[in-house]
Design goal:
This protein is mostly helical and about 100 residues long. The chain contains 3 helices and no strands.
Amino acid sequence: MIELNILLLEFSVILGINILIFIFSLVSTDLLVSSLSFLIFLILLIPFYTLIEKIEATVFAYNLEGLPFFKLIFFYSWLLNIFIGIGLFVELIYLFMFC
């Protein structure tokens, strides 16, 4: 069970970093900062979704797949990542067009 707690902590740290990158990119209007933020976001997606797969496997191993808590975590993290990705992409397109 401690393994699941550690995986959830890593999950929340990576999600927090994605949110901070998004907020920093929104505050900054520099093309270089927005490009780097989008690149870092894309790089962090690989370990994020790998971690989600590990959490799903651990939840299945502990027979906790019936709990709606984990389903909500996976759904809202997916939704949040889609929102952040689209937001960064639109900001990058806007900066390329008008800078």
